[in-house]
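Sample pair:
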Amino acid sequence: MSRELINHREDLKRLIEEGYHLEVRSGYLVLHDVPYVTSSRAVKYGKLVCSLIEAGPPPDHTIYFAGEYPCDDQGAPIEALRNSSNRQELAVGLWVDHRFSAKPVTGSYTDYHHKLTHYAQVMGRCARRIDPIAIVFKGKLVSSADPDDPFVFMETASSRVGITRLNESLSNDKIGIVGLGGTGSYILDFVSKTRVAEIHLFDGDRFAQHNAFRAPGASTIEDLERNLTKVQLYKERYEKMRSGVIVHGFDVKPSNVKVLAALDFVFVAVDNNETRGWLLPELKNMGVAFVDVGMGIERTEDKLFGIIRTSFCETLKSSVVQSDENGLRNVGEYERNVQIVELNALNAALAVIRWKKHRGFYQDFGRETRSNYTIDGNQMSNK
């Protein structure tokens, strides 16, 4: 379904927001899973189909139906709907069996939401007298046929809260994530829900048992037994939802770092200070904006305490604002080995929020280049 068409039609957005299973195919709007009664008084589900125009109300009051002719709860045909019956193929693979003609009390339909729900209610009332839970099934996926849409199925969350344009402002970005450990995997999870064009994953390690306890979602024994690299595993997981996940099954080194130059933004989520020491200056020299994350967690008296750090560098490639040099020199200040999943997720969330500030998605008065979250005091300090 075309995002542009949905964005310009409030009636279609309303149908999607209410959870109806819609499809747009070859100029027709299809409402799936509509309950009706057959002549044998069985409750079945069919499809309503009508022509779709880009603007304005529906051109007429007729509609097509795929299924047996609908009846009332006694098995008698609903004559008020009858127009004609003729099995035909409106578009490739889109077959219908009947054409209905039923005007609303007002004489015409105000929009497609009015039209589709009216026909669905006429048949649904009869079905519910036999089966009280026979409703137009909601909750099925609204598939996307838009070639520019990175998602396998339509992203309907943005339209519900009116931030579609903000999300689309990220649609041309090419993002890199260096390191797919605990924090890097959560960065991927968060970024995968945005409309960015490409997400490049860089990590040469394999997905091991301990990784399963610091990664989004639930891993299976089969996942571990396959002995895949982290980037292979995550590509498989996230390609079920979106396109543009591009894997690089190697660690970034001085010999291959130039591959990052083609990206618009990079998240650095490595736990090696030596790598940070040369990688961050390289990114800056190449003009690639980035966020570097890290945490220093220690144990005392059987409790954990420490700091979560987010460092940001906005380069000349994207802006004239420069980063805090001292902050970049000290990025390894808090490196430790203790990592906990909720802290990884928080570190990733702060990093993604900082990227979205950089891109104008969030308001950014402070323009901080470094922030530290202290666990024991629940405090955030910015520089």
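The CA atoms of residues 136 and 380 lie 48 Å apart.
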